[in-house]
UniProtKB/TrEMBL annotation:
Domain of life: Eukaryota
Catalytic EC class: transferase
Protein's cellular compartments: Membrane
Any GO MF annotation of the entry: polysaccharide binding
Transmembrane region(s): 233-250
Protein name: RING-type E3 ubiquitin transferase
Keywords: Membrane, Metal-binding, Signal, Transferase, Transmembrane, Transmembrane helix, Ubl conjugation pathway, Zinc, Zinc-finger
Residue ranges of domain Wall-associated receptor kinase galacturonan-binding in the record: 24-88
Keyword Transmembrane helix: yes
Length: 270
C-alpha cells in the first residue's frame, strides 16, 4: 500500500506541473475592463501560446479593442466565456456601417444573434416614416434605409447591398442600443466553459484547443473530475488498489493451497 501512495503522489506531482504550464496570466486593459484570457490574448502582454490565432486583442487608452481587416477597430465591451459571446461597440457609433463592411468569413467569429437578409437602399428622397432610416449613413441629399430583402425597391432608391444582419436591428432599435454581439467556435471546446471546464491549448506547440478542468475559482464538478488531473489521480488510485488486492488474494490462495496440501500430506502420513 505504501508503494501505492508513493506512486499516486509522484504521478499527481507530474500532472500539476503539466497543468501550470498551460496557465496564463489574466490581463485587463483597464480596471473595469473585461478579463482577457484564452482563447483571447493581448498582443505584447500575453505570450503567443496564451491565445488562439484570430483572437488577438489590443489595449488602446485603457480600452479593449479588436481589429477586423474588413472594418477596422471595434471596442470590446464585454466577453462572456461561458456563452461564448463577445459584445462590441463601434467607436464611430454607426453599427450599420459595421454590418455593411464587416466580413466575418476568415475569422473565428459569427454573429451571436439570429440573422435575416436585409437590403440597404440609398434613396434620393425621404421615404415614409414606416421605413427605418439609417441616420449615420444618410446626408442632407441622400437617405439610407434597411428594408426586408423581399420588398420591391422604391423608384427613388438604389439598392446598395443585401446581407444577413442580426434580426433585431431591422426595426425601431437605434444604433448601439442592442449591442453588436459575436460568438466564436473552437474545435474541441464547444460548450466547454458552460459545463465548468476551461478551454486551453494543451501545449505550447499544439494548435488544437482542448477542454480542461483546471479552474482556479470554480467548485468541484463531475466534468471537472473527468477532464482534469484529479480524474487521472482517482483512476490511478483505483488501479493501484485493484493490483494490490489482487496480489493479496493470490497470496492467500496459494497459502490456502499449501495448507490443504500439508493437511493432505498429514492425512496420508496418518
Ligand atoms: C488609463 O488609466 C490610468 C489608471 O486608471 C490613468 O492614469 C490614465 O490616465 C488612463 N489613460 C487614459 C488615456 O485614459
Ligand atoms: C467575404 O469574404 C469572402 C472571402 O474572404 C468572400 O468570398 C465573400 O464574398 C465576402 N462576403 C461579402 C458579403 O462580401
Ligand atoms: C440570405 O440570402 C442568401 C442568398 O439568397 C442565402 O443564401 C442566405 O441563406 C440568406 N441568409 C439568411 C440568414 O436568410
Ligand atoms: C448614397 O448616394 C449618395 C449620392 O449618390 C452618395 O453620395 C453616398 O455616398 C451614397 N451612400 C452610400 C452609403 O453609398
Amino acid at each position: 500500500m505504501d508503494a501505492c501512495i508513493f506512486y499516486v503522489l509522484f504521478s499527481s506531482m507530474f500532472l500539476t506541473t503539466k497543468a501550470f504550464e498551460s496557465i496564463c496570466p489574466i490581463v485587463k486593459c483597464s480596471h473595469g475592463g473585461p478579463d482577457i484570457r484564452f482563447p483571447f490574448r493581448v498582443v505584447g502582454q500575453q505570450p503567443q501560446h496564451c491565445g488562439h490565432p484570430g483572437f488577438e486583442l489590443f489595449c488602446k487608452e485603457n480600452t479593449t479593442m479588436i481589429h477586423f481587416p474588413t472594418y477596422g477597430p471595434l471596442v470590446v465591451k464585454s466577453i462572456s466565456y461561458d456563452i461564448r459571446k463577445l459584445s462590441l461597440l463601434d467607436p464611430k457609433n454607426c453599427v450599420h456601417e459595421v454590418f455593411l463592411n464587416l466580413n466575418l468569413s476568415g475569422t473565428p467569429f459569427q454573429y451571436y444573434y439570429l440573422l435575416k437578409n436585409f437590403t440597404y437602399l440609398n434613396c434620393s428622397t425621404r421615404l415614409s416614416p414606416s421605413f427605418d432610416e439609417v441616420s449615420c449613413l444618410s446626408g442632407s441629399r441622400h437617405h439610407v434605409y434597411t428594408v426586408e430583402s423581399s420588398l420591391p425597391t422604391p423608384v427613388s432608391c438604389r439598392p446598395l447591398k443585401t446581407i444577413p444582419i442580426p434580426f433585431s436591428y431591422s426595426s425601431y432599435l437605434a444604433d448601439n442600443s442592442f449591442g453588436l454581439g459575436l460568438t466564436w467556435s473552437l474545435p474541441g471546446c464547444e460548450d466547454c466553459e458552460a459545463k465548468g471546464g476551461s478551454c486551453v491549448l494543451p501545449s505550447k506547440a499544439g494548435l488544437k484547443a482542448g477542454c480542461l478542468g483546471i479552474e482556479h475559482d470554480k467548485g468541484f464538478s463531475i466534468v471537472h473530475l473527468l477532464s482534469s488531473g484529479t480524474g487521472s489521480i482517482i483512476l490511478n488510485i483505483l488501479l493501484c488498489v485493484f493490483v494490490v488486492t489482487t496480489l493479496i488474494r493470490i497470496k492467500i490462495y496459494f497459502r490456502q493451497r499449501m495448507k490443504v496440501d500439508e493437511e493432505a500430506e498429514n492425512e496420508n502420513l496418518l
